[in-house]
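ok trying this again, last paste got cut off
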Amino acid sequence: MQSADPTVSAGSPSPEGVGAVLSAARTRQGLSVADVSERTRVRATLIEQMEIDDFTGCGGSVYARGHIRSIAGTLGVDPVPLIAEFDRAHGRTSEPQALPSRPFDPLIPNGAGARRGFPWMPAVIVALVAICVLAALAVLVPNGSDSALRGPADARAAATGSPVSPGAGAAPGASASPAQSVTTAPSGVNVEVAVRDEPSWLEMRDETQRVLLQQLLQPGDSRLVKAARSVEIKIGNAGSVEVFCNGRDLGLGGNPGQVVTVRVGLGASGDCAVGNPASR
């Protein structure tokens, strides 16, 4: 979509603030904040804050980009340079920010679904019982039979008098440091969807057409699925859903109520690639 403002071109950062560009475009079209709110389903107070470059009420960078894309599309402005300017001014995060916890709902009986603290008392009781059992075994088991409680490597060391190396007895090829497995880059396709302003129904399948997700998500919800090669996503409300692949925002956009089906997979370069979307 080409920008209605000649000073804003695709692929280049905005010479003005994001809020100033959106405000100027709205004024040129003779629209009020309430008109834009009705078309985009974004709260009028939030639009007013964004027009003065205050994005603290958006709930995080992911949702701020989504609001910018939605408002810019309604006003006929190219959202790409505006999002680039937002990332430059506020810093781009590779992962969606944590959403605030939902308020307590008095209609849910007995506080069902509320987060409960860790049950410390049962854990302490179990730990004390385990200590008592170990102490009893230490008293009852003769010292000469403690070799039966040790592994093969420890028994060989006791017989020969040689120390056992920390990696002895490990399976061939096993890593001696568990941290190595943590730093390994994720393989396959990791796709995350985040719902912004309105509920959206989503269905996600892997390359074998196995259903990974089939659910109606509410605003603020997000889900992560993993597949070996590709994920097919059917979105029931494309104007309210953000899609990320291996931590990268794919920039999929749509209109409120639009049904879009896309396939996300690994391209030739190893990065996530999006197939041609089919919408109706």
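PB: full thing came through this time. Strands lie at 189-195, 200-206, 211-217, 222-227, 230-235, 241-245, 248-249, 260-266, 272-274, 278-279.
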